[in-house]
């Protein structure tokens, strides 16, 4: 371990970066970041950690232990810092103010991620494609698209999902639960994000501003779709022809045209086959039935000739 003691203030300096520590033991733990050493292994899974305290917190995920209880609601947490962050929901405290806009945040994590929207920083690149992401969480979820991994299985149907939160929201379709109530109307929703988007219809808030023009949007997905007008990007490729589309909706609508055409073609072939069967009977005898009737009811044309009425009936082709 490369260390040096700085005399005068008795701090321990890391030899691989510019960090320094008051205690040698703290430096040793820090040095594991550089060496990759993780001596504390979880007995429930294959994860390992640089510090014993981190292992202890992780183990609570397996045991379900949540010793930090909120005094204002029934929620409890694995660690003290999570409780502190949660408490700000009740107090309304948002100490992290964005310098680019008027938004403020309860945690430094959400604040940092938000700032990247303004700076354009996406430090988490995908190893399978050229996409990169603002958060490691978003990257992990994206990678599941490449791997096809959907570890969260619905217990009510055969659907599975990449994200746990998506499964929770989906399950509410089966249970009918809509716990997120709009404070301005009588609508309620299965998930918090949908309520958030809905609320913007009342407030008129459109926080997602286009960098190419003066349009703004209530949803980031709508901004992304709009931006493709400027960039000319068309990521949705038709599998039936060479057309491409900037919007998934347009792509799906186009595919339906192909499906309808295929359906009509199949029906036309079926009709041609039936018509051929009918015309193949052209050399067959036509049987005429004269039904018995009351002789007094037979009409004449006034000259002694019988009036014969020929009825045309449709041929049953099906």
Automatic annotation (TrEMBL):
Task: Tell me where it resides.
Answer: Nucleus
Per the record, the domain of life is Eukaryota
What's a Gene Ontology MF term here? zinc ion binding
Q: Which InterPro entries match?
A: GLI_C2H2-zinc-finger, Znf_C2H2_sf, Znf_C2H2_type
What does the entry give for GO biological process?
positive regulation of transcription by RNA polymerase II; segmentation
Pfam families named among the record's database cross-references: zf-C2H2
Give a GO cellular-component term: nucleus
Q: What is its main location?
A: nucleus
Q: Which residues form the C2H2-type domain?
A: 12-39, 40-67, 68-95, 96-123, 124-151, 152-179, 180-207, 208-235, 236-263
Keyword terms of this UniProt record: Developmental protein, DNA-binding, Gap protein, Metal-binding, Nucleus, Repeat, Transcription, Transcription regulation, Zinc, Zinc-finger
- Signal sequence segment: none
Summary of the function given for this chain in its UniProt record: Krueppel is a gap class segmentation protein.
User: Which family is this sequence assigned to?
Assistant: Belongs to the krueppel C2H2-type zinc-finger protein family.
Name-wise, this protein is Protein krueppel
């Amino acid at each position: 371990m490369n260390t040096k003691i700085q005399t005068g203030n008795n701090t321990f300096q890391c030899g691989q970066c510019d960090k320094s520590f008051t205690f040698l033991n703290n430096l040793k733990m820090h040095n594991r970041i550089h060496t990759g050493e993780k001596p504390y292994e979880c007995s429930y899974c294959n994860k390992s950690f640089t510090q014993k305290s981190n292992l202890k917190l992780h183990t609570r995920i397996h045991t379900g232990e949540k010793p930090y209880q909120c005094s204002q609601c029934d929620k409890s947490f694995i660690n003290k810092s999570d409780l502190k962050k949660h408490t700000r929901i009740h107090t309304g405290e948002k100490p992290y103010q964005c310098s680019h806009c008027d938004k403020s945040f309860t945690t430094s994590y959400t604040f940092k991620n938000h700032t990247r929207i303004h700076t354009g920083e996406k430090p988490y690149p995908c190893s399978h494609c050229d996409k990169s992401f603002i958060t490691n969480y978003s990257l992990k979820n994206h990678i599941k698209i490449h791997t096809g991994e959907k570890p969260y299985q619905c217990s009510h149907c055969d659907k599975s999902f990449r994200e746990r939160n998506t499964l929770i929201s989906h399950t509410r379709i089966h249970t009918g639960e809509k716990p997120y109530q709009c404070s301005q109307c009588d609508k309620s929703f299965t998930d918090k994000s949908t309520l958030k988007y809905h609320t913007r219809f009342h407030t008129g808030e459109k926080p997602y501003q286009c960098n190419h023009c003066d349009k703004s949007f209530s949803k980031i997905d709508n901004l992304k779709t709009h931006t493709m007008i400027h960039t000319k990007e068309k990521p949705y490729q038709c599998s039936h022809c060479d057309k491409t589309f900037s919007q998934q909706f347009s792509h799906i609508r186009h595919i339906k045209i192909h499906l309808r055409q295929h359906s009509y073609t199949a029906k036309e072939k079926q009709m041609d086959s039936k018509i051929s069967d009918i015309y193949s009977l052209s050399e067959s005898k036509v049987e005429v039935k004269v039904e018995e009737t009351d002789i007094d009811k037979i009409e004449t044309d006034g000259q002694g000739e019988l009036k014969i009425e020929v009825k045309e009936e449709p041929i049953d082709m099906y």
